[in-house]
């Protein structure tokens, strides 16, 4: 078993080390949030389809952040959604589970898909299905030691834990072998519903510093 080649979008995700998972009742504030995140070095943005206006947000962010960040779609659950996201400009697709039709639609559109998996069987199936990165979800259900254990028999699988990961946990996950982490609520806080963008900026700085420190260790 060997690792899959890294496409440019995935390379950008791995370079960021943090994927900011934007989820709110409405995507209306996502542009302002993304501007703060990218300015502080969080250059991988995932817009979840459970947010009202998500497709328009993906299109706007993909246009406005071109060259500065890579913008993808999250909570992609079927082929129609995958195609719509690709058409809107999403450069990667993320699912909470292994959904073959999403991976197939992404491949047809030339967009990498990061399926969700938890058990070793699911992780291996996602990898063998062509996923350049496998989203370990929910990360909070296991912990960093689980990544280290998985990487023993599956050293070529790129694992990105997501779900319930706090800012103070980033170093442990990357130290265990994760290639990046997905951060939702602990990074975004209440910014999606009108909260303080200055506080968001500080959290983004902490996240980027944690990635830098872990990779320098």
UniProtKB/TrEMBL annotation:
GO terms for molecular function: lyase activity. Transmembrane segments: none annotated. It comes from the Bacteria. Pfam families: Aldolase. Pathway: Carbohydrate acid metabolism. Homotrimer. Belongs to the KHG/KDPG aldolase family. This is Uncharacterized protein. It comes from Spirilliplanes yamanashiensis.
């Amino acid at each position: 078993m060997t690792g899959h080649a890294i496409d440019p979008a995935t390379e950008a995700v791995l370079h960021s080390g943090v994927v900011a998972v934007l989820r709110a009742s409405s995507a209306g504030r996502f542009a302002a949030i993304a501007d703060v995140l990218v300015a502080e070095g969080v250059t991988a943005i995932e817009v979840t389809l459970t947010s009202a206006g998500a497709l328009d947000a993906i299109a706007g962010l993909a246009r406005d952040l071109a060259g500065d960040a890579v913008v993808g779609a999250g909570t992609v659950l079927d082929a129609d959604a995958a195609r719509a996201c690709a058409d809107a400009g999403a450069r990667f697709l993320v699912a909470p589970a292994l959904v073959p039709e999403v991976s197939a639609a992404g491949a047809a559109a030339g967009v990498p898909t990061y399926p969700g998996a938890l058990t070793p069987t699911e992780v291996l199936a996602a990898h063998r299905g062509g996923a350049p990165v496998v989203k370990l979800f929910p990360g909070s259900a296991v912990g960093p030691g689980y990544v280290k254990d998985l990487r023993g028999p599956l050293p070529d699988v790129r694992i990105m834990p997501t779900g319930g990961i706090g800012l103070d946990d980033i170093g442990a996950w990357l130290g265990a072998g994760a290639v990046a982490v997905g951060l939702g609520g602990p990074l975004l806080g209440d910014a999606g519903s009108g909260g303080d963008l200055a506080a968001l900026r500080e959290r983004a700085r902490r996240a980027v510093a944690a990635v830098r420190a872990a990779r320098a260790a």
